[in-house]
Amino acid sequence: MSQKLKTTSQRARREDVASVAGVSSAAVSYVLNKTKRLSPEVEQRVLDAARLLNYRPDRIAQSLAGSRTHTLAYMTADIANTYQLEVIKGMQTEALKNDYIVYIFDAAGDVKKYVSHLITRRVDGIFVSAAPDFLSDELLCELRDANIKVLADFSRSTFLPDVSYIMSDMYDGFMQAVGFLKELGHTEIGYLSAFDESCYYDLRLPAFKIAMRKLFGAGVPPIEFGGWPYSTSETLGIRLMTKMLSEHPEVTAIVATNDLMALGAIKAAIACGRRVPEDISVIGIDNIDSSAVSKPSLTTLDQSGNRYGAKIFEILHNDIVAGTSGKYIVPMRLIKRESTGTAPQNVENRILLQE
Amino acid sequence: MSQKLKTTSQRARREDVASVAGVSSAAVSYVLNKTKRLSPEVEQRVLDAARLLNYRPDRIAQSLAGSRTHTLAYMTADIANTYQLEVIKGMQTEALKNDYIVYIFDAAGDVKKYVSHLITRRVDGIFVSAAPDFLSDELLCELRDANIKVLADFSRSTFLPDVSYIMSDMYDGFMQAVGFLKELGHTEIGYLSAFDESCYYDLRLPAFKIAMRKLFGAGVPPIEFGGWPYSTSETLGIRLMTKMLSEHPEVTAIVATNDLMALGAIKAAIACGRRVPEDISVIGIDNIDSSAVSKPSLTTLDQSGNRYGAKIFEILHNDIVAGTSGKYIVPMRLIKRESTGTAPQNVENRILLQE
DNA sequence: TTGTAAGCGTTATCAA
DNA sequence: TTGATAACGCTTACAA
Asked: For A138, which of A165, A261, B40, B91 is 20 to 30 Å away at the CA?
C-alpha cells in the first residue's frame, strides 16, 4: 500500500499502521478517533496494527490539522500558595484523564510574553486565578479574541463579555456554617477577617454578614479585621482571636476567614482559658490537610482544592467544546469535626469561671 | 503575489506578511529566523509588514515543519517544596527568555501517561528532579529513545548512557565552608545530618567528611544523625544541636545539612547558653530567603534555586542544540554572614563560664 | 539574492 | 466502506 515505509524511523506514523493493517490511512483515523464506524474486522486489524507498532498519533500534527491543541494554561499570581498548588494538581489530574495538558505560569514573569506564547501555541483555554488583576483586561481580551477560552476567578474587578467566571458558593457555604452554629444554640457569633471592608475581592466577609442577617435578623455581629497588608496566617488568627475575646467575651462561636487563622484562633482561645468546643466553637474555611488532624480537629467549609481544580477543567473543557461561556458557581460543603459543639448553657457562669 | 489573502482571519499568516511586503513567503522566514541574509531593503520591508500585521509565527506549524518544538518539561516528586518551586521559576524564566516553554508535572500523577504525552507532543527535553527514582529507568530510556534530551539529578541511583546529569558541587562547597571555618581558627567542627549513612543519594555527608579529611587529616568529626524517616526541619535542627552540645561540648563550629536545620541549631545553641557566633559558629546550606534576615543572619552555602533552574535550562538547551550529553557540576558559593566568627580563644574558659 | 516547491503527520472532504 | 487528496502554516533544500 504505502510506497515508502520509514524503516529507520523511531516512531510509527499513521501510514505505517495503515500499511501493516492493510487499509488506507484514512481508515486508521476513523477507527482510532471513532469518527466513523468501519467493519468490525477492519477495526480489529487497525487496532492490532496500532498496538503492534506502539502507534501514538502525533499531537503536533493533530493540532495543525485539527482545530484544537488539547492544551490549557493555568495562570496565577502565586504558585507557592499551598491551596493554589492543590487546585493546580486537581486541574492537571483531570486534564490528563481527558488527554489534555496544562501549562502553568506564575504571573511574576513577563505576563505579556506568556500571552504571546499562549496564542502562538494555540492553547485551547486558560484559567486565570484570583485577583488582584495581574492580567490586564486588555491581555485577557487579546486571548479571548485569539479564540482561546478564558475562565477567570469571579473576584476579578471587571466582567468581560465572552469570558467565563467561576466562584465558590460562599453565600451558601456561610449559610451552612452559620446555620449549623444556630442549630447548636449559638447566638453570639463572631468573625475573624483577614481583609478589611475595602477589599473588593473578598467575598467571605459579605457572605458572613448576609448569612447572619438572614438567620438572626438585624444587628451587627462582632468582627475583627486584619487589615493591610493582607495576610492570612495562623499568627494573625491568634492576634485577632485574642482581641475578640477581650472585646467581646460574650461570643460563643467564631468563624475565621480560613483554616490557618481558625487554627490560630483555637490556640488563642485555649491560651485565654477557653475550652474548644465546650466554651467556644470555631469554624474555618478551606479544609486544608492539617485541619483534619489538629487537636481538636477543625470544623470547616470545604472547597477542596483538588475538586475545585477538576471543576476548572470541566468548565473550560465544556466551554471549549460547546463554544459557550458563563458564570459558574461551585458548591461548598461543611465538614463537621470536633471544634464545634452546643453553645454553653450559662454564659455568666462561664465568664465567672474564667476570672 | 498571494492569490488568496485571508480577509476574515484573526491572525496573520506568513503568506500575508509576504504579500504585504511584496516578497515570497520564504523570504519572510529567512528574515524572521535570520537563517539567510537578504538585502537590507527587503529585510526592512518584511520587518515592517510583520509589525504592521502583528505577525507571530505559529509554533504548532513551526514544530511540525522543524525538528524542535521549543518545549521542555520539569518532572518532580514534590511541587510543593519551596526550594523546588524556586528552581522551577528559575528554569521557566530562563526558558521564556529563549522562547521556550516548560511543562511542569508532579510525579504524584500517572507518570507513564506523562511520558506518553511528552513523546506525542515531542518535547525537546526534560529535567527529572532528585531521587528517589519516581521515574523508572525504563521510562527514562523511552524518553531518551524518542529523541528527547533527558537531564536528571545526579542523585539517581543509576546512570544511563546518553542521559545527562546535573549536581551542585557539594565537594567544593564543603571545602569552602570547612576551609572558611579553619581560617577562623576552628578545629572542632561538627555536622548535623538529616540523613543517615545508608542514604545513597545524600551527597552532603560524604562531602563534609572529605573536606574534613583534606583539611584536618585523619580523625572522625562529631556527627549527629536525623535518621529515617528523613526530614530536614528546624525542629530536627534543634534536636540534633541539643544532642551535639551535650555529647560534644568541645565543638566550636557546626555545619548543618540545610538552612532550616541550621536555624534550628542556632536556637538550640542560644537555649543552651551559647552565643552565636562568639561561642559557636553555624553554617547552613541552600541560602533560603529567611537565612538572610534571621538573627544572627546565617552564613550558608548558596545554591540559589533560581540560578540552579536557569542552569538546568542552559544545559538542556545546549544538549538539545548540540546533540550532546554529559555530567554537569554547578558551583556553589559561600555566603558569609553573622553566624560565623573567629573560634573562641580559650575553650576551657568558655566551658567553665557555662557551668 | 530571491522564489519555488517538497515535505512534516495529521484531519476531513469527496468521489469511487 | 474505502482511497485519494486538499488543507493546516511553516522550514528548507534547491532552482532561478
From this structure: B91
Nearest residue, CA→C1' of C11: A65
Report the topology of domain B68-168+306-332: Rossmann fold (3.40.50)
Correct CATH for A170-303+335-354 of 3.40.50.2300, 3.40.50.740, 3.30.565.10, 3.30.70.2860: 3.40.50.2300
Instruction: Examine domains B68-168+306-332 and B170-303+335-354 and report if their fold is the same.
Output: yes
B245-258 pLDDT tens trace = 999 999 999 999 99
User: Which neighbouring-strand residues pair with A71?
Assistant: A101
Residue matched to cell numbers 484544537:
A68
What's the Cα-to-Cα distance from B195 to each of B152, B188, B202, B223, rounded to whole Å? 21, 21, 7, 11
Number of helices and strands in chain B (H, E): 13, 12
Strand D bases near protein CB (under 7 Å) are: 1-5, 7-13
Asked if residue A322 keeps its beta carbon closer than 7 A to nucleic acid strand C, the reply is no
Q: Whole-model pTM?
A: 0.83
Q: What is the pLDDT of residue B196?
A: 87
Cross-sheet strand order for the sheet of B281-286: B223-225, B189-193, B253-256, B281-286, B299-302, B333-335
Cα→Cα distances A109→B70, B100, B192, Å: 18, 13, 37
Find out whether B262 and B284 touch, Cβ atoms under 8 Å: yes
All residues of chain B having their beta carbon less than 8 Å from the beta carbon of residue A117 are: 59, 96, 101
Residue boundaries of the structural domains of chain A: 14-57, 68-168+306-332, 170-303+335-354
Residue corresponding to grid cell 463572631:
A190
**Are B64 and A64 inside 8 Å of each other by CB?**
yes
Q: In 10 A of CB A293, how many CB atoms?
A: 8
Positions in chain A whose pLDDT score sits under 70: 1-10, 131-132, 346-355
